[in-house]
Automatic annotation (TrEMBL):
Membrane topology, from the record: Multi-pass membrane protein
Ranges where the record places region Disordered: 1-24
Domain ABC transmembrane type-1: 90-451
InterPro entries in UniProt: MetI-like, MetI-like_sf, Sdr_B, UgpAE/MalFG_permease
Source organism: Streptomyces erythrochromogenes
Compartments, record wording: Cell membrane; Secreted
Protein name, as recorded: ABC transporter permease subunit
Protein family: Belongs to the binding-protein-dependent transport system permease family.
Amino acid sequence: MTDRPAPGGPAPGRPATGGPAADGRRLARRRKRRLAVVFVLPALLLLGALVVYPVLFSFGRSLFDADGDRFVGAANYAAIVQDPATLKAIRNSAVWVVVAPTLLTGLGLMLAVLTEKVRWATAFKLVLFLPMAVSFLAAGIIFRLAYEQDPDRGVLNAAAVAVHDGFDDAAAYPTARAREGHGLTGGAGGPYSTAATVRPGGSIGLGFIGVAPDAMPAGAKAASDPAGPAGAAPAADAIGGVVYLDFAPGGAGTPGRVDPGEKGLPGMKVEAVRDGRVAATATTAEDGSFRFAGLADGDYTVRLPAANFEAPYQGVHWLGPALVTPAIIGAYLWVWTGFSMVLIGAGLAAIPRDALEAARMDGATEGQIFRKITVPLLAPVLTVVFVTLVINVMKVFDLVWIIAPGPVQEEANVLATRMWMVSFGGGDDQGLGSALSMVLLLLVVPAMIFNVRRFRRSGA
């Protein structure tokens, strides 16, 4: 006797699909879906309004001319590769993408490893991470001031000048110039030479102007008589003279002559030149006097070398056309080094210590452990940090816009700043600007996809 299914029950070999319990489960799933849609909908609306719509609008706008009235197709994209300023921005962006993430990842790795070996690791990490709390606007202003050419304002050039002057003495009188028509020839900045020759036994006065009273050396004394102390004439084998500031207080006195109240210029190097060769050298005393002794008979020209009048060293022109991009990258490194160090430090803390200890017991050096164990185990973290920084670098705008002075702005431009200048900064060509924004998006999207996939694999 065979069993038969009850009336209304499932057929033999087929699972039950109905019933109040199954209907309840389906109803619960529908409610959960509706509830999920309710919670996700605001985010989707914001995503569409702030991301999807602007992307679609920018793409459409990139197909029209500057006024947006005439369809030009891909003409704006063709103009990108024909515009020298845009090509320069693309080149600068390439430099940023190669240099900044590489340096930041390397610095972060080095600092993360070193902080494990210091006692105050937490305080050290905090100090390095603090710039992340500073906005790019504030960081740009800080570094714009730090890179100032004037050593009295720019801290970097103040340090550079201090180091330079520690090894090379500054010129004594950079602003001094010879009084015209009174025996000296030569252009601004020297060298200056006497127009007439001098024979041994003679003396000469060399008057200069252009030295401010507060720029005079503290030990400068009243200028001496060119004939020598107490009116004594130079010996038969000597030439004497005085280098002085040919300007008396109140403007009194006669140009070309040492007057009461006029001071000598001490520390000035003077040369006696005969037949194009330097026969003797001297340095002026506190009263500006000098004397060449032991000279052979003949005609000599007295010369003051240009080293006396060289402009003082002003440091490095950080924001000039040649260094502006590396200087801005330096500011970016200051802001983001802490970020890189903290992320890599977190990955370093997750490395199994038994592998490191086993390598040490096998006789591996710290360098070998770092190269063959630490770096390979940190490869996923290093990749994430590098790609994240590449994405961030592609969008850099604030630092470039703030730090680069107007005259060299074009030399420092990246794609983001070029897009702004073309669209709103005077170019008034939103068609070309929109095309640049689409190019920037296409360059960023692959790195973003790579990062998302990396995060998913690490989460799995």
